[in-house]
């Protein structure tokens, strides 16, 4: 469904990713883990057209999209939810949902988003930037439902959120999986990612250093062998 083959990418004169192979099958959940500065966000940005690779090939559903603009990836069903919420903070919650709806009736979009996240129903006239961090993440995540993509790429969905809110976010991600979408998750809570994922990639210094089934590795082993700390 989404694949990078021998991809090298970076910014300006700086190379961040080196000869990266990364694949997500239809309906598969992939956890992308690694220490700070490993290149995880750059990999996601490259996989969604925000960063153009210097070398290698990118495919969406078997089609070569290397060098295409980000909106071309979106048209092919790739939804990128970036770190930092990915909303329009100066607009109301209602207007954010209107933008996400992409031609659907606003009332239908609001109904679907508030069925998923009821708290948003009482915040429709509020500016999105004034929501709590958890509510902003819920608003951002609603885009993955309203646009009905084939692949959802989520960068640090739980960053800065209380554990109870993290649980709600992961319940919503599980519902995406149940709808048959492919999912890529970059996550600080390693155990949460392992519980959701089928496959794990671990990135270090811009290179993939481990690929395997999520059931074959524990969070303790990941911390000790790859992240340099113990739980």
Quick structural gist:
The chain has 231 residues and is α/β, with parallel strands linked by helices. It has eight helices and ten strands.
How is the topology of this model organized?
Elements: E1 2-11, E2 14-24, E3 29-33, H1 40-47, E4 55-60, E5 63-64, H2 70-75, E6 78-81, H3 93-101, H4 106-116, H5 133-146, E7 151-155, H6 163-178, E8 182-186, H7 190-196, E9 199-204, E10 207-213, H8 219-227
Parallel strand pairs: 3-8, 3-9, 6-7, 7-8
Antiparallel strand pairs: 1-2, 1-4, 4-5, 9-10
Helix pairs in contact: 3-4, 3-5, 4-5, 5-6
Explained architecture:
The protein is of the alpha/beta class and 231 residues long. It has a domain at 2-77 and 149-227: Rossmann fold, CATH 3.40.50. 35% of the residues lie in helices and 26% in strands. It is built from 8 helices and 10 strands. The protein has a 6-stranded mixed β-sheet with strand order 6-7-8-3-9-10, sandwiched between helices. A hairpin with a 2-residue loop joins strand 4 (55-60) and strand 5 (63-64). Helix 3 crosses helix 4, helix 3 (93-101) runs parallel beside helix 5 (133-146) and helix 5 runs parallel beside helix 6. The longest helix has 16 residues, at 163-178. The model has no long low-confidence stretch (mean pLDDT 92).
Give a quick set of tags describing it.
alpha/beta; 35% helix; 231 residues; six-stranded mixed beta sheet; 8 helices; Rossmann fold; four-stranded antiparallel beta sheet
Give the CATH superfamily of the domain at 2-77 and 149-227: P-loop containing nucleotide triphosphate hydrolases
Strand arrangement within the widest β-sheet reads 6-7-8-3-9-10
SSE string? EEEHEEHEHHHEHEHEEH
CATH A-level architecture of the domain at 2-77 and 149-227: 3-Layer(aba) Sandwich
CA-to-CA gap between the ends?
34 Å
Can you tell me the CATH class of the domain at 2-77 and 149-227?
Alpha Beta
The number of helical elements comes to 8
Share of β-strand residues: 25-35%
Shape: globular
Class derived from helix and strand content: alpha/beta
| Low-confidence runs of at least 5 consecutive residues | none
Count all strands and give the number.
10
- Outline the biggest β-sheet: 6 strands, mixed
């Amino acid at each position: 469904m989404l694949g990078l083959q021998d991809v090298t990418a970076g910014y300006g004169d700086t190379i961040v990713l080196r000869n990266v192979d990364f694949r997500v099958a239809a309906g598969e959940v992939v956890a992308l883990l690694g220490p700070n500065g490993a290149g995880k966000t750059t990999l996601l940005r490259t996989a969604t057209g925000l960063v153009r690779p210097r070398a290698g090939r990118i495919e969406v559903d078997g089609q070569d999209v290397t060098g295409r603009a980000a909106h071309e990836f979106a048209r092919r069903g790739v939804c990128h939810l970036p770190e930092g919420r990915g909303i329009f903070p100066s607009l109301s919650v209602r207007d954010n949902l209107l933008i996400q709806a992409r031609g659907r009736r606003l009332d239908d979009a609001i109904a679907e988003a508030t069925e998923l996240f009821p708290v948003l129903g009482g915040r429709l006239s509020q500016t999105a930037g004034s929501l709590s961090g958890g509510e902003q993440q819920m608003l951002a995540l609603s885009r993955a439902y309203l646009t009905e993509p084939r692949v959802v790429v989520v960068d640090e969905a739980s960053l800065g959120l209380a554990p109870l809110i993290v649980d709600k976010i992961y319940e919503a991600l599980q519902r995406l999986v149940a709808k048959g979408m492919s999912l890529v998750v970059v996550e600080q809570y390693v155990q949460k990612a392992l519980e959701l994922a089928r496959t794990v990639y671990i990135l270090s210094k811009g290179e993939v250093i481990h690929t395997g089934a999520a059931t074959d590795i524990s969070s303790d082993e990941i911390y000790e062998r790859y992240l340099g700390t113990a739980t």
